[in-house]
Amino acid sequence: MSIIKRLFRKVSPSTINEAPVLEGLQKILARNHPVDHKVNAYSKILVYTFEPLGLYAWRESIIARALQLRGGKVSIFQCDIPLAANDMDNQVAGSFFADNLEKSIAFYSDCGFDVLLLSEYLTNEIKADLKYKAEHLPLENLKSLEYRDINVGLYALNSTVRHFLMPQPEFENELFVAKFREYVYSCLLITEGTYQLLLKSRPDKVFTSHGIYISWSPVFYLCRKLNIPVDVYGGSYRANTLRVYRNEPAAPFPLALWPKYKDVHLGVKENEILDKYIPGRKDNRNDSIKLFSDERSSSDVFDFIRNEKAKGHVVFCLFTNIAWDGFMFKEKTVFRDMFEWITKNIQYFSNHGSYSLIIKAHPAENARETNTPEKYRVSSIIPEQLPSNIYFCKPDENVKPFDLYPMIDVGLIHISTVAIEMALEDIPVLTSGANGHYSNKGFTIDPQTEDEYFEYVEKLGKRELSFTPDKEAARRYMYFRFFKEAIPFEPLSLNGWAVKSLNINSCSDLLPGKFKGLDTICEGILNDGEYSYDWTIHE
Question: What pTM, to 2 d.p., does this model score?
Answer without folding.
Answer: 0.90
